[in-house]
Design goal:
Structural class: mainly beta
CATH architecture of the largest domain: Sandwich
Radius of gyration: 26 Å
Number of strands: 27
Number of domains: 2
Order of helices and strands: HEEEEEEEHEEEEEEEEEEEEEEEEEEEE
Helix content: under 10%
CATH topology of the largest domain: Immunoglobulin-like
Number of helices: 2
Strand content: 35-45%
Amino acid sequence: MRINRLLIAGIVSVGLLTSCANNEESGGGTSSPAIVKLTLSTGSTTKTGGGTTYTGSTGNYSTSTPGGTGTLASSGTDEAKINHICVGLFKTGGTTVSIQEVDLSSSSVSTSSNTNGEISTSITTTTDAQDIVIVANVPANKFKGVATKAAFIQTAADLAYTTSADGLTSTPTSLNSQKTTALPMFGSQAAINSGNSSSVSTTVSLTRMVARVGVTAITTAFDASGAYSSATFVPTEVFMYNANTSCNWDGSFAPSVQTGESTTTPASSSTAITSANNSSLTNYAYLSSGYLNFSSITPNTTTTSTLNSSTVYATKYLKTTDTPLFFYVFPNNATAATKLVIKGIWYFNGTYEIVYYPIVINHSQTGTSFNSGADGGAVPAGTDSYVAYNTRYTLTATIKGKGSSSPGVNITPANIAVKVNVNTWADTSQDVIFN
């Protein structure tokens, strides 16, 4: 009899423990099971566009071009592709009800009801789940154990995970390895179940948390009658400088700026220098094109053309008809402003040097013009040198003079003409002329 009593007591204890565990997971004894029918979209202001990366080590351009007009994508190479999501469900006060990961890599995209595309799924939760936060294309278990909505949002995204096709892994030491198909996205909705229903439907619009910074044209245009008429500059690398690599999901950040420069400049003789990829690359090599092979292009010093009413010797190393060089970065402020840097070999008066042409993103100055964009081709007040998420900054650069000795040293605006195009996905195009 004593053994039986102990056995019954043990069964009761296990039952009580199980009951407590279930109540804790569901957020308390007053809740009941509920289903959230979730629809994901990108929203009308989230746009995708063309452009691919340059495979610098081989000197060839990728043929994989992201496309679309803002629709979510479950396959292909679109910048709106969703591979998987992490769903945080929270009580009204912000306490976590549950955190769930859902694989959407094979989910179908519906376009029958709207032009933005939708992916639908259902989440099992409880009726005290009132607020929902969704992030897309992040590594597994990133939010495991997060106790509050605020902590969920402040579990910062790591830019290095844009180097995988699905956002689950990172290869930060691989040159120019960012992918178009795993961009981190964020969306949220409050008071999704104020009626405490057992079944509720909600639509959450996702926004990319990265900006895309790219250059579509690099041209040298030395004044045919000027001091540098006999000069040549050959680009050897394009990289990001002061790129923010960490960001909270509400767009806030404490800048963690990094530089992707990944080529060295070994001497090939007493008068000439060359460039090559570093033998030991850093964890930010993905922010560099790596060595660019423009050796097949001969600088033009014989045929003149016209630029801004000046007669110049123009050489187009990267043309607007070519595939652009671009990188994804997180938003940043002007404290340590993000730059796209063109690095290369300068030759003048029998001497070779490595020089840099740093372009401060979204910076208004002499020699820089802004085209397109929702703000009529101007940098909005208070945002000069700021990088915004979900924005494309598309640059063209015309080099007319000598660059600086370091990517940290800006050069006089006359030395480079930059054109910037900003639109919402958004887009920004920046044209710079370096005299």
